[in-house]
Amino acid sequence: xxxxxxxxxxxxxxxxxxxxxxxxxxxxxxxxxxxxxxxxxxxxxxxxxxxxxxxxxxxxxxxxxxxxxxxxxxxxxxxxxxxxxxxxxxxxxxxxxxxxxxxxxxxxxxxxxxxxxxxxxxxxxxxxxxxxxxxxxxxxxxxxxxxxxxxxxxxxxxxxxxxxxxxxxxxxxxxxxxxxxxxxxxxxxxxxxxxxxxxxxxxxxxxxxxxxxxxxxxxxxxxxxxxxxxxxxxxxxxxxxxxxxxxxxxxxxxxxxxxxxxxxxxxxxxxxxxxxxxxxxxxxxxxxxxxxxxxxxxxxxxxxxxxxxxxxxxxxxxxxxxxxxxxxxxxxxxxxxxxxxxxxxxxxxxxxxxxxxxxxxxxxxxxxxxxxxxxxxxxxxxxxxxxxxxxxxxxxxxxxxxxxxxxxxxxxxxxxxxxxxxxxxxxxxxxxxxxxxxxxxx
Length: 442
Ligand code: TTP
Ligand code: MG
Ligand code: MG
Hints:
Blueprint: H1 13-16, H2 37-47, H3 50-61, E1 80-85, H4 88-97, E2 105-108, E3 120-123, H5 125-128, H6 138-144, E4 154-156, H7 160-175, E5 180-185, E6 188-192, H8 201-218, E7 223-228, H9 231-240, E8 246-248, H10 254-258, H11 271-279, H12 285-289, H13 293-300, H14 302-312, H15 322-325, E9 329-339, H16 342-362, E10 366-376, E11 381-392, H17 395-409, E12 416-427, H18 430-433
This protein binds thymidine-5'-triphosphate and magnesium ion (2 copies).
One magnesium ion (MG) binds next to strand 1.
């Protein structure tokens, strides 16, 4: 009988590999005028599709290549940490304005005395006691806890700038012990701390306590931490003792962790899927798991069943990489008055491109796509892109591409309201993430 407490660790990692990364055929690049021959050679030697070649050989041979140290796709057991700030926007506002944390604070759209049509972004724990939560219609929040003069609710729109600044300060602290680091949203990050704690789970716990104290002392915010061998498990554990909690799942405790735990708590199982499973009689993870992959697959679909088995077996991804949560890096500039001096616009475009590339280098990321965004007077917006054959992080290459895209596409004599540059189709050779500089996030 399959039970959760004596789970065998199945070696089906291969099945969990994303298949979209099979090698691509590169067409010869027609416009290499701006690439010097040396640069071209450098590109071919150093970058040619490192990541994809490796995944291809794994798929073909059916076994993993020996892993180099610092590889982000390592199948060795990793110690991952997920950090999520507590009631983030609300906590920042309370700190900034010196508000009383025990009074309900709701951040979101204007409630318009209960007639507002927007939603709640977040609220503090005092407001949560009224049953208010993120994404709830603000009218519903008002019904539960009205604002002045009808009730104690304090409703504010919030200020993005404050949150970004606080987020940057927190990320700077979290990056220090992370061999691999991924800012997953404005208030959460994944850290691979395996090397830092030398594989010691107790040291990982102590590290989280230190980080938690450091964030509270330096930034004034409280954070919750989850420690586990996979991303999903780390994320779930950071929820367990919120707020200001730390929770750890050791590799041999995964089965126990899922015993009696609601399927709805697993990131990736939404309300629709959870309702469907409940209709079949499965409310907790173990109830679905003991059915086995085949039987569950017949009801809920093979892919879902296979995935759920992997989650419980601790066989889902432990990769921490900025590329997972970032599709592109871009910067744009809005002119205070619409511009017709294209030389001046080009100067701005060059500076934006340079900044994007500096940033991508800091993050150890390269890209294949250059995109220039042009917004004309009246808000009409066009983006013009061009791909290069291999991912690069050479500012010179992208400066020339940006100039070329602008010069060949701008509709002459029209006023320009905004110009932007974006680096897309990102890539990060595994060895480079280890060199991730401790620079501030955007
Ligand atoms: P969360 O981490 O989901 O929520 P939280 O930090 O407010 O609360 P918790 O203590 O449970 O972690 O989201 C982080 C911030 O993102 C949140 O403070 C506000 C913002 N946000 C929205 O603007 N809209 C949303 O629907 C959600 C979920 C969050
Ligand atoms: Mg949070
Ligand atoms: Mg969050």
